[in-house]
Write a structure and sequence with these properties.
The chain has about 350 residues and is α/β, with parallel strands linked by helices. The chain has helices spanning about 10-20, 40-50, 65-75, 90-95, 110-120, 150-155, 160-165, 180-195, 205-215, 220-235, 245-250, 280-290, 305-315, 335-340; strands at about 30, 55-60, 75, 90, 100-105, 125, 135, 140-145, 170. The chain has a five-stranded parallel beta sheet with strand order 2-5-8-1-9. It has a two-stranded antiparallel ribbon with strand order 3-4.
Length: about 350
Amino acid sequence: EEASLKGESPAMQELAHIIARVAPAPSPVLILGESGTGKELAARDLHRLSGRRGAFVPVNCGAISPELLESELFGHLKGAFTGAHRGRDGLFSFADGGTLFLDEIGEMPLAMQAKLLRVLETRRVRPVGGEQEQAVDVRIVAATHRTLETEVAAGRFREDLYYRLNVLSLTLPALRERPEDIPALAQHFSRQLSRELNLPAVPWQHSDLTRLCHYSWPGNVRELKNVIERALLLGRLPGDTLPVDSQAAQVSGRPAWDDSGDATTSAEEEASLKGESPAMQELAHIIARVAPAPSPVLILGESGTGKELAARDLHRLSGRRGAFVPVNCGAISPELLESELFGHLKGAFT
């Protein structure tokens, strides 16, 4: 099933109507909304209904360093800068005839905003190091969780670019503003993730849906999907997996059990979490259940509690044939971390 915005509430039905009406037009669209409300899905719906034959090309403006963003968007010629041993097309070229989705447009540096404004006005791009401009047929859809009027007033976003992008703005409602959509969304994610994870769907009771509807969902639809996935992995009802109030979760004093020495290993056996306490037995049960699934896992705990051992147990029980590769994100300089994780091409940097 193709990813698309979901919802039967009046707000979502009105949004779907507007998207269907404006999708065929080449005008830029600015999508606003809190994190997790589905801004990229709205952009994909705009592209899918546009009739444009080119690609949908998403880019997160806040995830690319300012030094590389111009080359990433417009491309560059061989020798344009130190390390540019060959030319490269930019994302505008890849999106020619299609849609370029500029996510987190509010994070774009001011100097880059001026160049983007020119492209919007002329519909032509000039690669870094080039003299000739190239015509492009690209529909721009931008999104941000920031209030751009505030960013303009603070001098962090160009007023002329804001008005050029804001031909039409779509505001996605927060999930707490459309609680009537929560039961259907929960059922949808349960069916979808049950197929993806090859796990049985969670049985539903009225009390479970009521609890889901009464939760405030600060992470919006993304958080709801994560809760449903967690419920499938743990075999518990979604209502049992909702985050609890942080103050209620605090405990005082020493716990009734203490496995502080159980995370040690001997040289003769494979490194693994150890412990016979109820807490460690429950943890081992959860690890064994969720290990085969491809879902990401976040391991929390104080220093020295055995978080890497838990990760190794997840890998060992997953059946995955590739290697277990640990990396300490805090031990690598920020300048090198992207290359360390994703690699780099010859001449990518000095």
